[in-house]
């Protein structure tokens, strides 16, 4: 597969629009994580409340991805994306103008930020439907690299909050969001081969396929680990190593950047050697890295190195999962993107909330990390169980490597 073949295969402006939309959406989806130290200080939140605050957008985004998956099939991806962006922009504007004065109010905002997380169910089908099977991993990896927006949040939000107050960060976020919204309106196009709208029963029927559940579990581990860490590491570095919010944000940005950067590489590698082989290696690396992190590293630099390794594995795993999904469920890619994305959000919610709960109850983050490392091992065992069946059934009928 060469670059020229890929460029001729799809619609580059739509792929760019999908990436930019995804990027800005992810930036605001995890925004409460990088701002968590300042928000928690001003509102007097406990460790468990901090964990639940940064986890709530992940959970809301998880379930809203189903809603967006339905809208994608009923209205087509571009229209669904327009609706979602308007809701997020309006929510941030209200939060900026009205202010956030209580734990309850920050949770309400967190739910609306979940709409940004649901962008996953829009951006990926918007891009995917333009590309043939042999280019799915690369196309989905590029669009999915929009999760690099989490880097922007970690890099800039704490510094901006220290300079002009954390509530004003919501207003500043409206600037890039509005610019990308205009670009999206101008250049994004729905693919000409969009499938016709499905009946509600069609969505239920997908869940009767055991492969749908396997993909949901696999993504709950890869994306759940990525998003859960992206939302939690600023608070972790602040609590564990005494870093101020700005420096904790810088360390978080470095870790998250690693995971974001390699998502397209994971998709491309899966195109070359197969998604199953790629995922096998990534789950093993993620499990080892998270288990080591659970012990608590003696220095922040060593901890950062371990989290970079974990994020590299999880980020590449994200790309590999979505090299496989379109091969197995091409006709149901809209609803499957929503379902698999929902599972990823639930995984992120679990990790982020359990870290805060573990810290409050035991005084340590160890149990939260160890349990998620165990889930990575279970995913590895599950992949080993299904790989022979996948390769000899639907895998044998597609042009791409699986």
Describe the fold and architecture.
There is one protein chain. This protein has a single domain, classed as Growth Hormone, Chain: A. 82% of the residues lie in helices and 0% in strands. It is built from 18 helices and no strands. The protein is globular and about 55 Å long.
Draw up the topology in text.
Blueprint: H1 3-9, H2 12-29, H3 36-43, H4 47-75, H5 77-98, H6 103-117, H7 120-128, H8 136-144, H9 149-164, H10 166-187, H11 200-206, H12 210-241, H13 245-261, H14 263-273, H15 275-294, H16 300-328, H17 333-362, H18 366-392
Helix pairs in contact: 2-6, 2-7, 2-8, 2-9, 2-10, 4-5, 4-6, 4-7, 4-12, 4-17, 5-6, 5-7, 5-10, 7-8, 7-17, 8-14, 8-16, 9-10, 9-13, 12-13, 12-16, 12-17, 12-18, 13-16, 14-15, 14-16, 15-16, 15-18, 17-18
Distance between the termini: 15 Å
What is the structural class? mainly alpha
Compute the CA-based radius of gyration: 20 Å
Q: What is the residue-averaged pLDDT?
A: 88
According to CATH, the homologous superfamily is MFS general substrate transporter like domains
CATH architecture name: Up-down Bundle
């Amino acid at each position: 597969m060469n670059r020229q073949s890929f460029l001729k295969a799809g619609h580059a402006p739509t792929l760019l629009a999908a990436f930019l939309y995804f990027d800005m959406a992810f930036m605001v989806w995890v925004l409460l994580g990088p701002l968590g130290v300042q928000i928690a200080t001003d509102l007097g939140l406990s460790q468990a409340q901090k964990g639940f605050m940064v986890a709530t957008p992940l959970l809301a985004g998880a379930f809203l991805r189903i809603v967006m998956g339905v809208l994608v099939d009923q209205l087509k991806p571009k229209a669904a994306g327009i609706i979602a962006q308007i809701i997020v922009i309006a929510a941030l504007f209200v939060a900026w103008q009205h202010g956030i004065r209580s734990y309850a109010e920050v949770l309400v905002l967190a739910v609306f930020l979940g709409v940004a997380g649901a962008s996953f169910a829009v951006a990926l089908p918007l891009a995917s439907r333009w590309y043939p099977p042999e280019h799915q991993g690369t196309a989905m990896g590029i669009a999915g690299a929009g999760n690099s927006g989490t880097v922007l949040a970690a890099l800039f939000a704490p510094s901006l909050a220290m300079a002009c107050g954390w509530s004003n960060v919501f207003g500043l976020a409206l600037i890039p969001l509005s610019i990308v919204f205009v670009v999206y309106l101008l250049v994004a196009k729905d693919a000409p081969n969009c499938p016709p709208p499905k009946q509600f029963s069609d969505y239920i029927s997908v869940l009767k396929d055991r492969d749908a559940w396997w993909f949901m579990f696999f993504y709950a581990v890869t994306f759940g680990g990525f998003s859960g860490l992206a939302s939690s590491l600023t608070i972790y570095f602040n609590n564990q190593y005494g870093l101020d919010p700005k420096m904790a944000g810088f360390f978080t940005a470095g870790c998250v950047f690693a995971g974001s950067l390699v998502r397209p590489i994971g998709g491309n590698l899966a195109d070359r050697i197969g998604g199953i082989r790629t995922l096998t290696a990534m789950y093993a690396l993620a499990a080892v890295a998270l288990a080591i992190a659970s012990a608590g590293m003696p220095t922040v630099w060593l901890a950062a190195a371990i989290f970079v390794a974990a994020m590299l594995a999880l980020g590449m795993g994200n790309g590999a999962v979505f090299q496989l999904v379109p091969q197995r469920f091409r006709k149901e890619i809209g609803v499957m993107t929503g379902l698999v994305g929902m599972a990823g959000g639930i995984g992120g919610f679990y990790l982020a909330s359990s870290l805060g709960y573990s810290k409050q109850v035991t005084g340590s983050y160890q149990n939260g990390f160890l349990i998620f490392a165990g889930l990575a091992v279970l995913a590895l065992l599950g992949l080993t169980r299904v790989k022979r069946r996948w390769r000899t059934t639907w895998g044998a009928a597609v042009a791409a490597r699986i």
